[in-house]
Amino acid sequence: MRASQILALAAALPTTLAAYKGFNYGATGRDQAAFEGEFNAAKNLAGSSYTSARLYTMIQDGTTNTPISAIPAAISTKTSLLLGLWASAGDAQFANEIAALKAAVAQYGSAFTDLIAGISVGSEDIYRITPIGVSNNAGLGVGPETIINYIGQVRAVVGDKPIGHVDTYNVWTNSSQNALIAAVDWIGVDAYPYYETTKDNTIENANATFWDDYDVTVAASQGKPVWITETGWPVSGAASGKAVASVDNAKTYYDDVACHAFANNINTWWYILQDTGASPSFGLVGAGTPPPTTPLYSLAC
Ligand SMILES: *[C@@H]1O[C@H](CO)[C@@H](O)[C@H](O)[C@H]1NC(C)=O
Ligand SMILES: *[C@@H]1O[C@H](CO)[C@@H](O)[C@H](O)[C@H]1NC(C)=O
Predict the structure, then answer these.
(1) 132 alpha carbon to ligand 1 midpoint, in Å?
(2) pLDDT digits (tens, 9 = 90+) for 93-118
(3) Which of these CATH numbers, 1.20.1250.20, 3.20.20.80, 3.40.190.10, 3.20.20.70, describes 3-270?
(4) Quick check: bond before 67 cis, omega within 30?
(5) Among 176, 181, 198, residue to substitute to test ligand 1 (most atoms within 8 Å of Cβ)
(6) What is the mean pLDDT of residues 163-183?
(7) What phi-psi label fits residue 239: left (phi over 0), alpha (psi between -120 and 50 degrees) or beta?
């Protein structure tokens, strides 16, 4: 293509591409129909359409390394995917994650790979080995050297896709992560003012706290894009410091944080569409299979 043609093409494109807007999805107990029910509910949610899905594993529940059924469900519902490979269960289990990723590429081809918004190698792995993660009994984690090694393995399979890592904002501001930040294409930040009990975490302060967390992550990011991979406020459950879980407060948090993220074209995967039985519960909709499409509070921005 000649330079003049490229310039003409560039001029025809919108100046900003629409950001990804999605939810986080678990894997336990879900088959393709269950994922399709969730993805369709997210798309058809009254007041706000969510068309992207963040996953934590490539592996279908109950199998060794069969690709997760969320992939055919995403293809049939035209849902983009922020894939995840679980990175805290040892090298042998990470090899199963890689095997499932390779098998999915071989089985579904470009119908699958065209839907990939990004790939996260791990989720909060480093948080779990920090003093605060250990004191919260957060579970097994790994350090940045392991994540960097795994990123190399994922690049060898899908080198043309944006590869990143998701962790908590206070992990990203720790200078021990500089080599990891250099190794990724994007940074995923998880931040929940509700849980930040060392701060004055009333709902009145929550918007400022979240954007402070985001801004310090951007400052540490070496210029890499910072995506919001998890945040939300619970509709029910116990208080956490000064944070009160309620539908009213969840709506305030959504109006302030989600609407500001969308208005600023920041890729966002909210926590969470449905959270039946959990306490605290962060779900935007109540119980039901497939999930209802009427949210517990208005999602209009
Ligand atoms: C900083 O990150 C390293 C891992 O790279 C971790 O071992 C250490 O505990 C972290 N420090 C704090 C204060 O979280
Ligand atoms: C939330 O914080 C952002 C970023 O600082 C700010 O631009 C916005 O006005 C705040 N929203 C409210 C409702 O205060």
Answers:
(1) 10
(2) 999 999 999 999 999 999 999 999 99
(3) 3.20.20.80
(4) no
(5) 176
(6) 97
(7) beta
